[in-house]
Request: fold
Amino acid sequence: MSKTSIACIALFKDKVLVAHRNLVGQMGGRWEFPGGKVEAGETDEQAIVREFQEEFGVCVKVGDAVASAVFAHNGTDVNLHAYRIFVPHRGIFRKYKLTEHSEYKWVTFDKIKELNFVDSDMLLYPKVREYAESVKK
Reply:
Protein backbone atom coordinates (compact mmCIF):
# COMPACT_ATOMS: atom_id res chain seq x y z
CA MET A 1 0.00 0.00 0.00
CA SER A 2 1.34 3.44 -0.88
CA LYS A 3 1.04 6.74 0.96
CA THR A 4 0.92 10.30 -0.30
CA SER A 5 2.88 13.31 0.92
CA ILE A 6 2.97 16.89 -0.27
CA ALA A 7 5.69 19.52 -0.56
CA CYS A 8 4.93 23.24 -0.51
CA ILE A 9 6.83 25.42 -2.98
CA ALA A 10 6.71 29.11 -2.07
CA LEU A 11 8.60 31.34 -4.50
CA PHE A 12 9.73 34.96 -4.20
CA LYS A 13 11.84 36.47 -6.97
CA ASP A 14 14.72 34.00 -7.45
CA LYS A 15 14.27 32.30 -4.07
CA VAL A 16 12.30 29.43 -2.55
CA LEU A 17 11.17 28.91 1.05
CA VAL A 18 12.95 26.10 2.89
CA ALA A 19 12.63 24.95 6.50
CA HIS A 20 15.02 23.27 8.94
CA ARG A 21 13.44 20.31 10.75
CA ASN A 22 13.59 20.07 14.52
CA LEU A 23 16.12 17.54 15.80
CA VAL A 24 13.64 14.65 16.10
CA GLY A 25 12.75 11.71 13.88
CA GLN A 26 14.61 10.09 11.02
CA MET A 27 15.07 13.32 9.08
CA GLY A 28 15.58 15.58 12.08
CA GLY A 29 18.06 18.40 11.58
CA ARG A 30 17.75 18.43 7.79
CA TRP A 31 16.35 21.07 5.46
CA GLU A 32 13.23 20.55 3.34
CA PHE A 33 10.46 22.09 1.34
CA PRO A 34 7.69 22.41 3.96
CA GLY A 35 4.97 19.78 3.72
CA GLY A 36 3.72 16.54 5.19
CA LYS A 37 1.42 13.58 4.85
CA VAL A 38 -1.99 13.58 3.19
CA GLU A 39 -4.50 12.18 5.67
CA ALA A 40 -7.33 9.78 4.79
CA GLY A 41 -10.16 11.62 3.04
CA GLU A 42 -8.05 14.70 2.26
CA THR A 43 -7.13 16.07 -1.15
CA ASP A 44 -3.56 17.19 -1.74
CA GLU A 45 -4.75 20.79 -1.64
CA GLN A 46 -6.52 20.34 1.72
CA ALA A 47 -3.40 18.70 3.14
CA ILE A 48 -1.24 21.64 2.02
CA VAL A 49 -3.50 24.20 3.68
CA ARG A 50 -3.69 22.11 6.88
CA GLU A 51 0.03 21.33 7.07
CA PHE A 52 1.12 24.93 6.51
CA GLN A 53 -1.38 26.18 9.07
CA GLU A 54 -0.15 23.62 11.61
CA GLU A 55 3.57 24.11 10.95
CA PHE A 56 3.78 27.86 10.19
CA GLY A 57 0.60 29.34 11.64
CA VAL A 58 -0.64 30.94 8.42
CA CYS A 59 -3.16 30.15 5.72
CA VAL A 60 -1.85 29.70 2.18
CA LYS A 61 -3.33 29.59 -1.29
CA VAL A 62 -2.53 26.56 -3.42
CA GLY A 63 -1.36 27.02 -7.00
CA ASP A 64 0.01 24.76 -9.73
CA ALA A 65 1.12 21.17 -9.35
CA VAL A 66 4.88 21.46 -9.89
CA ALA A 67 6.51 18.03 -9.60
CA SER A 68 6.02 14.46 -8.41
CA ALA A 69 8.28 11.63 -7.29
CA VAL A 70 8.00 8.20 -5.70
CA PHE A 71 10.34 7.00 -2.97
CA ALA A 72 10.46 4.16 -0.45
CA HIS A 73 10.14 4.94 3.26
CA ASN A 74 10.29 2.11 5.80
CA GLY A 75 9.26 -0.40 3.15
CA THR A 76 6.31 1.64 1.85
CA ASP A 77 6.11 3.54 -1.42
CA VAL A 78 5.36 7.23 -0.91
CA ASN A 79 3.95 9.39 -3.70
CA LEU A 80 5.33 12.89 -3.18
CA HIS A 81 3.60 15.80 -4.93
CA ALA A 82 4.92 19.36 -4.94
CA TYR A 83 2.58 22.33 -5.37
CA ARG A 84 3.24 26.01 -5.63
CA ILE A 85 1.81 27.91 -2.70
CA PHE A 86 1.29 31.59 -2.05
CA VAL A 87 2.22 32.68 1.48
CA PRO A 88 1.24 35.89 3.27
CA HIS A 89 3.98 38.48 3.85
CA ARG A 90 6.78 35.96 3.23
CA GLY A 91 7.37 35.66 6.99
CA ILE A 92 9.69 38.63 6.87
CA PHE A 93 7.77 41.47 8.49
CA ARG A 94 5.96 39.15 10.90
CA LYS A 95 7.67 35.87 11.73
CA TYR A 96 5.87 32.59 11.14
CA LYS A 97 5.07 30.53 14.26
CA LEU A 98 7.06 27.34 13.76
CA THR A 99 5.93 24.08 15.39
CA GLU A 100 8.01 21.42 13.59
CA HIS A 101 10.96 23.44 12.35
CA SER A 102 13.73 25.37 14.07
CA GLU A 103 14.01 28.00 11.33
CA TYR A 104 13.06 28.92 7.79
CA LYS A 105 14.68 31.02 5.13
CA TRP A 106 14.43 32.08 1.52
CA VAL A 107 17.30 30.67 -0.55
CA THR A 108 18.36 30.52 -4.19
CA PHE A 109 18.13 27.13 -5.87
CA ASP A 110 21.93 26.91 -6.01
CA LYS A 111 22.05 27.23 -2.20
CA ILE A 112 19.83 24.15 -1.76
CA LYS A 113 22.69 21.98 -2.98
CA GLU A 114 24.82 23.26 -0.08
CA LEU A 115 22.19 22.46 2.56
CA ASN A 116 21.66 19.06 4.19
CA PHE A 117 18.38 18.64 2.26
CA VAL A 118 16.13 15.58 2.70
CA ASP A 119 16.64 13.00 -0.03
CA SER A 120 12.98 12.81 -1.07
CA ASP A 121 12.80 16.56 -1.73
CA MET A 122 15.98 16.37 -3.79
CA LEU A 123 14.04 14.05 -6.14
CA LEU A 124 11.72 17.02 -6.76
CA TYR A 125 14.51 19.59 -7.05
CA PRO A 126 15.12 19.51 -10.85
CA LYS A 127 11.43 19.93 -11.76
CA VAL A 128 10.82 22.51 -9.03
CA ARG A 129 13.78 24.57 -10.26
CA GLU A 130 12.60 24.24 -13.86
CA TYR A 131 9.12 25.42 -12.83
CA ALA A 132 10.55 28.38 -10.89
CA GLU A 133 12.58 29.43 -13.93
CA SER A 134 9.49 29.21 -16.16
CA VAL A 135 7.29 31.42 -13.95
CA LYS A 136 10.05 33.99 -13.48
CA LYS A 137 9.98 34.88 -17.19
